[in-house]
Amino acid sequence: MWLRVGLSASPVRVVPAAVAPSTVPEACQGLDLRSTVSFGGVVICVVGLMGGGHLCVGYGLVEWMFAPKGAIKSLWNIKEFMTKPIAADEIITFVTEVFERADMPVQDAKSLAQELVDAELSGYASVGLRKVGEYLDRVQRNVTNANPEITVDLDKGALARVDGDNGFGHLVVDFATQLAIERAKEYGLAGVGVHNANFAGRLGGYARNAADHGIATIMFANTGGAIQVVSAPGGTEPRLSTAPIAAGFPRAGEAHFVLDFATSSVAYSRLGEAKDLGEDIPAEWTNASGDLVPFGGYKGFGLALLAETLAGALTTAGMPSEQPSADEQGLFLLAIDVGSLRDVDEFQQQADEFLEYVKATPLAAGASEIRVPGEQSEKARQHGLKHGLHLAAHVAEDFRQVAKSLNMNVPWFIQAN
């Protein structure tokens, strides 16, 4: 019998005890194992996860969620936890059918499902499967084009612009990324802008995909001026989007360097996820008016202004102003073909030597390791692909409602008593 504890942002301490690696449950092996405790034949594993903010505790066949103040809420009934973890492919199949029934082409529906599951696997639940119901609603209300014709509407070789035809940003940004890879391979350097697209969620996956092809990337995104949820330092009204920035470069190992962050204190979707889970909102996330604030004060503010301008003005997607704006994803992607400047293997070797040197820094008291951007999300992704996923209660309920509304057969993993 074992007890598994998934730890993300909650300040919980567990006193380590000597536990042989062989006694650690397989489901916890390969994760960011912070500590283990053994008593009475029970092994407690404290595991660092991403995108959470709560403790998920499993004992036998029952799991609970511990809210930050220690309240306990039942996530699932016992019958649901008698099932096995859900294979990623099973969830992809379900989500693909959802969007097919919303008149999306089969390949587009599958690509969108894969992107959402990939975000969930990588620890970005706030822009993962919890978005399925919302995206379905957008298609049904004709807010998002279910069958877009994505085109290159400006082409100057190494510079190009993509018109997303109001399609899902996941599909549009994937198209733009593939175009940037092709043009960078041809010209050594490429810049691709995106306009007239919906929200693309997590950007790090596109940086990772480009790195698979030996391409280093920097991405800047905004919402075309429509979603103003972040206040300037000292301000009392929001005037900015969360203006995310992503970047990546290829490494020789399994995990490429991938940086993906909102220039606000947290992503807006993370704020929504916290509300879904009934969590208290940390004071440092917002100002006195309840608006999100830039991370790092004026440093994050400056990066937000840069991202808004490159993603909005350079691409024609639009920028925040007093005038109403269309809700669209503006994005500018800079792609660099590493092999055009030097041998890729030599680049990766030098980059990896540098990163390993940094990671070998002597640790401060209480620190477990130094992690490089991209490593933890890839570890989580590989773990989920191997062991499967558990859906959060509110996501499972959303799936049930979606299946009911579309007259779909309810798959085993979301069946209720």
Structural class: alpha+beta
Please report which band the strand proportion falls in: under 5%, 5-15%, 15-25%, 25-35%, 35-45% or over 45%: 15-25%
Helix content: 25-40%
Number of separate strands? 15
Secondary-structure element order, N to C: EEEEEEHHHHEEHEHEEEEEHHEHHH
Placed side by side, the strands forming the largest sheet appear as 7-8-9-15-10-13-14
Radius of gyration using CA atoms only: 22 Å
Morphology call: globular
Termini separation: 26 Å
Low-confidence stretches: 1-24, 38-43, 48-83
Mean pLDDT: 84
The largest sheet is: 7 strands, mixed
Helices, by number, come to: 11
Describe what this molecule looks like in 3D.
- β5 (62-66) and β6 form a beta hairpin.
- α2 packs across α3 and α5 (169-187) packs parallel to α6.
- The chain has helices spanning 78-81, 88-100, 106-121, 132-140, 169-187, 204-212, 268-276, 298-313, 344-359, 375-387, 393-405, and strands at residues 2-7, 32-39, 42-48, 55-59, 62-66, 72-74, 151-155, 159-167, 189-197, 215-222, 230-231, 238-240, 245-249, 257-261, 330-337.
- The protein has 417 residues and is of the alpha+beta class.
- Residues 1-24, 38-43 and 48-83 have low confidence and may be disordered.
